[in-house]
Amino acid sequence: MFLYIAINKDENTGYGVTVPSLPGCFSYGDTLNQAIDEAKQAILFHIEGILEDGKEPEIQQPTLDTLITNPDYAGVQWFGIEVNIDHPDTQ
């Protein structure tokens, strides 16, 4: 599954990650690479929690143009990541 993630870096902190297509899914990393890796794990954990609650995840991936022009994400860096939700052990 391909998802966009928004990464925000403040001057004195690490990298905060938001996954717009999964409301409530956030992560953090001390480095950019760690933030991306942690985002993949957060996505898997988030989806697993939804499934454990007996629900189906509703993943609606906005277009990159829609995300870039959304004022809620002003100043973030955008990355596209691939997450294998069928086989989490391969991450």
Automatic annotation (TrEMBL):
Residues 5-87 form the HicB-like antitoxin of toxin-antitoxin system domain. It comes from the Bacteria. It holds the Pfam family HicB_lk_antitox. This is HicB-like antitoxin of toxin-antitoxin system domain-containing protein. The lineage of its organism: Bacteria, Pseudomonadati, Pseudomonadota, Betaproteobacteria, Neisseriales.
